[in-house]
Amino acid sequence: MKPNKLTYQERNPPFKYGEQVKTLLERGLIADSKDLEKVLQSINYYRFKGYLFSFREKNSENFSSGTTLEQVLNCYNFDNLLRLLIIEAIGNIEIAIRSHLAYEFVHKYNSTGYIEHNNLQGFKKKDHKHFLTILDIKTKKSQKEDFVKNFKRDHHNEPLPLWMAIELMDMGNITNFYKAVSYEIREKIAAHFNLPSGISLKQDVFYSWLNTLLIVRNRCAHHLRFWNTGLTKNPLILHKENYPEWHSENKINHHRSGFILFMCRYLLKQISPPSDWHIRVEKLFADYPMIPIAEMGLSENWQEHLVWKD
Q: Which of 41, 109, 124, 140 is most buried by its number of CB atoms within 10 A?
């Protein structure tokens, strides 16, 4: 008779702070035990371990010789600051997408054309109904917003015009709305960002990028480690014939987090007013020269890439 397999809980009992400290020190982390315990009281042990992976010896739980608490915290702090910059960039990109999406849609149909399923045939009927339900819930939750309150005071039985309603949509709603509009509208919006669309969504580069940025945005908003992670949804790559600058010898790994910096940089270049975001990104890397940027899929001279440069 086979012995019962231990559950995860049975194999991994919770450690007290002192035990967590002891384990990390025994694996070779160089740190004052009191300082390390104070860090672990603020940063969950499991979360902290994620920043230790880069310092582990191959096929071992032990850390490379000379690994210090300061080195790990440098990665942690770098990641915190990087996520803020990513959220800022994606926020500005999202606002610009809202603007173009509302403008192109209402000029093809009308200000409340989103109510009609025929104008959003990328939605199945049940998905369109769900979209309107979500928007209605968001409208009710935003009753104290001045623009909603003023509109409902004078037009209480009417739906919000799209240029108002779109301000209540989150990035997931925006991505789904873009997916549902006609190819004609998708093509115009993508063109504003100097990206190709596609009759099929599988070929739509802009839609691919939107989905990738949505996942990254949610990851950063929930404070998950980002700096050296792989992308769970890889964006489509631009063709060399029309976008040669993306195919220079200075390669960017489009499976790693560093590619998001280039996506944001490229999209922000298409948005007015001009942004100094890239300068602040460069300063962050200059402030943390010890970060192993190869883990981000970046080369040593990544700032000289044609896409990054002005």
A: 109
